[in-house]
Amino acid sequence: MSPRGPRYGSRTQRQLPNWFLGVTGVGSVVVGTAGALGLGGGPVACVVLALVIFVIGSSGIAIAVEGRRRGINRLATILVCTAFGIAMVPLVSVVYVVIKNGLARFDVQFFTYSLSGVIGAGGGAYHAIVGTVYITLLTAVISVPIGILCSIYLVEYGRGPLARAITFFVDVMTGIPSIVAGLFAFALFELVTQDPGYRSGLAGAVALSVLMIPVVVRSTEEVLRLVPAELREASYALGTRKWKTIVRIVLPTAIGGIVTGVTISIARVTGETAPLLLTAGFSNATNTNLFDGRMANLPEYIYFQFTNPGVPVQAGVDRAWTAALVLIMIVMLLNLLARLVARIFRPKIS
Amino acid sequence: MFRHVNRKTLGRIVLPATLALSLGLTACGGAANEASSGGGSSSGGSSALSGSINGAGSSAQSAAMTAWIAGFQQANSGAQVNYDAVGSGAGVEQFTNKGVAFAGSDKYLTSDQLTAANAACAGGAALDIPTYVSPIAVAYNLKGVDDLQLSPTTLAGIFAGTITSWDDAAIKADNPKADLPSTKITPVHRSDKSGTTNNFTDYLNKTAPETWTSAATETWPINGGESAKGTSGVVAVLKGGDGTIGYADESQVSGLQTAKVKVGSSWNGPTADGAAKALTDSKAVSGRPDGDLVFDVNRTTTADGAYPVLLVSYEIFCTKYANADQAKLVKGLLTYIVSSEGQQAAAKAAGSAPLPSEIASKAKESVDKISTDS
Amino acid sequence: MTTISSPSARRGRRARQSGGDAVFAGVSLAAGIAILVVLAGVAVFLIVQSVPAFSAAKSDIPGAGSLLGYLAPLAFGTVLSAVLALLFAVPLAVAIALFITHYAPRRLAQALGYLVDLLAAVPSVVFGLWGIFWLAPKLVPLYLWLNDNLGFLPIFGSPSVTGRTILTASLVLAVMILPIVTAICREVFLQAPKLQEEAALALGATRWEMIRMAVLPFGRAGIVSGAMLGLGRALGETLAVALVLSVDPTLITANLIGTTNPSTIAANIALQFPESFGVSVNILILSGLLLFVITFVVNLAARTIVAKSAVKV
């Protein structure tokens, strides 16, 4: 896989030892802390200053000792790792906050009770969990085939203005605000059913599909394009038909990336509140019929428990955090399931 | 180069996993606290109602509505009531378009809106009744100051941005005993359109018309100041910063100090009782259709113990429904809501003020106008 | 697409056509057209619903009194926050993707990739709350510092004491779009031809030179796609911005760290819609149409820029 360790570098060139980064690191922390405290900054200032000194200092030394090319390589390595570290701070803190607050109500009752008849503390999110799983799966059933087929069209068949138009409008579609998707789906179902009171998991899934399809297309298209043309040509050369080549060669080769894209797009829509509020409605009780009646779901559950918790306030807020934790776990499970599918279909290189 | 997909593996792992997932969700059939899915037939006596109705609207009364639905369904185990807290405007819109059987609104319908809504009522009329009364607290976060008192003019000055520090002479005059710091005042208002803002600005405009010149409005009318989404957002910002002051539903401000406002010559804090007294001292709006019961709150009341910063939220319904079962359910639910039992349940669950008894009995008369003949 | 010739360019001639092919091509074409139909549906819906807004009385238009005066600040805030978010997120996302694909040990890389994917699942309301409770207070000292030391720049004007500024909102948006952009960059970088990478290293290139010569040019289209997806999300994000931002919807200001900030179109819809009735709803939908147009224009611009610069490579 990726090359690791500074194995390149000839004997005639000077090379800094591995402990060099450790020394500059400790040095920067000392200087940075002293400097920040001297200027009257807080702990955050210390870290920032130390980091800046570390990046500039160690790459400066590396450029001076090892030469320009190797020095820049060091700088790039340090920058990539630092950027990664910086990005991890908010990401990890989000997860930490959700887990810390979510554990308060992570109990059996939460998974077996709905909110039907529950006032104040107690109760659970059974109805919302069921609703979210149903709506998400239906959304995936609608969006994934359309999305993948569309990207197949774009990559394998599409030429000319139609393909260009689709590519372009898919990008535009990613910018539809979620509430507009909800309003659209609401109006659509009002038109079709002639019933302005129509609410169902299906309507919710259609609203979410409007948001999900472009993400599936965009991510799938990217990985399909990267399948080497040689593979396709080898397949054609063996007399395999085009559609069979796509199904047997192109898709399996790209399956890892497709699954990532699908997972990301599922994750993208499971957290949406506004479109579901207008289309799936809300209920405190369980409904397992996707095609009729209001269907509760976790994003709305979280939203309402935060915004209208009633009394005592904390009971609602706790339920909301736990529901957020559960929602993330559901997406994680779907993610695992998708990866399992990918593993089965992935080509085995012998 | 490629081996065929191993379909046995597929069958062995994925199918059972999917089956297990879907079975796990449906096998138990329902939540442990819900009645068995036998429908209405299995439920109690002949008076119990069954079927389902939907409502939508005000999010302010959603906690109370949860309690009302729970209480109503306890007595009528075959009935299912859903309430989408989509907001008053959206609720009224859905009601007018026959999308829901009843709507909750923080503002009573204008005569134009009533006329439009009548079309949804199968030949009957659309009516408003008050169901949810809640004091709006002026909450603040200021270290070392516990018993803040604010006259309407001072309060208006703070929110209009003319009083900018906590040791301003006007605040000192209201609080001769308090030790006020020189902290900068950060007034916090709602960034979303809301009934709470409407009632609060109405209060400022009626009690301090010289300082607060904008009329009552659901959108914060002036520039400047911090804004936050929803009651929970305002409370979060208040808790987060020293020197902040804002307005929010009284039941949601636990952990914050609340200011007393000047009523007549006394200082009254936000209490359910005080809100009820202020409503009692208000006149029903005249010139409304028969059975329609709405109030313009008397913000300048001087009644003993009254607290005039309050929100009245209404239920909007039809006197006739195309479907008699719907009518029965709406009537049953609203009867429970305006009963003293229902009002107590809301007081417990949402911290609201129970309707004063004479208003409750008038509201009951309006509910009785619902025709349940098919 | 600089290293691989488009596969569609050489189809047909090599592959044998058959009934199966026709069906498959037809179905995938239908999927593509279905998307256009849906989008056209959304556009028609937006246009039909926003027509009444043009005949709205002055008193029905909040604030400015004219539609343009109402929409301009919202458009400004939308573009500003989304562009800032993109500026923060894309370099970080590329770095994370590089780290996962070319720097981190393989096992660690898989775990990290999984973690980042997971973060896409965090509901936006949670990001909003995280922004209010965790991020905003921590940024207040920074804002004070920026105002003290760089206050002569109009972008660092009078600072907010709660930290709920448009800069904070952009940072929250950046964190929200990070997983999407990262995931796409990562997939693309993983597909970079191993042979070219190894050839570069064999010729004595350092790891960074190899990335610059073999990985980044290859992944360029993918990075742009990822960025576009992220931009779409940032432009259209509703709840997180509505929660985090302290807004004054009539404001256009260069100050990124002030107490009052320009609102965004999507957040404004979320804030106003629930209590709106009649023509106010039409005005909000008109703003949704404007957002649609903005997304359209931004994408067009991005595509044009990419197409132009691609010729040079």
TrEMBL record, chain A:
The UniProt entry's GO biological process terms, in alphabetical order, are: phosphate ion transmembrane transport
Q: Which residues cross the membrane?
A: 20-39, 46-65, 77-98, 110-129, 135-155, 167-189, 246-267, 320-342
CDD domains given for it?
TM_PBP2
Asked if the Swiss-Prot or TrEMBL record annotates the protein with the keyword Zinc, the reply is no
One GO cellular component this record assigns the protein to is:
plasma membrane
Q: Is Transmembrane included in the keywords of this UniProt record? A: yes
Recorded hits in Pfam families, A to Z, give: BPD_transp_1
**Compartments it resides in:** Cell membrane
Q: Which UniProt keywords apply?
A: Cell membrane, Membrane, Phosphate transport, Transmembrane, Transmembrane helix, Transport
Record's bilayer topology term: Multi-pass membrane protein
- Domain ABC transmembrane type-1, which positions? 129-338
PROSITE patterns hit by this protein:
ABC_TM1 (PS50928)
What's one GO MF term for it?
A: phosphate transmembrane transporter activity
Provide the function of this protein. Part of the binding-protein-dependent transport system for phosphate; probably responsible for the translocation of the substrate across the membrane.
Belongs to which family? Belongs to the binding-protein-dependent transport system permease family. CysTW subfamily.
Which protein is depicted? Phosphate transport system permease protein PstA
Q: Which organism is it from?
A: Microlunatus kandeliicorticis
From TrEMBL, chain C:
Annotated compartments = Cell membrane
The membrane-topology field of this record reads: Multi-pass membrane protein
The question of whether Transmembrane is a record keyword is answered with yes
Q: Which residues form the ABC transmembrane type-1 domain?
A: 75-302
Gene3D superfamilies, per the entry: MetI-like
Which top-level group of life is the source organism from? Bacteria
Q: Which SUPFAM superfamilies match?
A: MetI-like (SSF161098)
An annotated GO BP? phosphate ion transport
Instruction: Answer yes or no on keyword Transcription regulation.
Output: no
Any one Gene Ontology MF annotation carried by this entry is: phosphate transmembrane transporter activity
What Pfam families does its record include?
BPD_transp_1
Q: Name one GO cellular component term.
A: plasma membrane
- Keywords of this protein's UniProt record, alphabetized? Cell membrane, Membrane, Phosphate transport, Transmembrane, Transmembrane helix, Transport
Known PANTHER family for this protein? PHOSPHATE TRANSPORT SYSTEM PERMEASE PROTEIN PST, PHOSPHATE TRANSPORT SYSTEM PERMEASE PROTEIN PSTC
What this protein is reported to do is described as: Part of the binding-protein-dependent transport system for phosphate; probably responsible for the translocation of the substrate across the membrane.
Protein name per Swiss-Prot or TrEMBL: Phosphate transport system permease protein
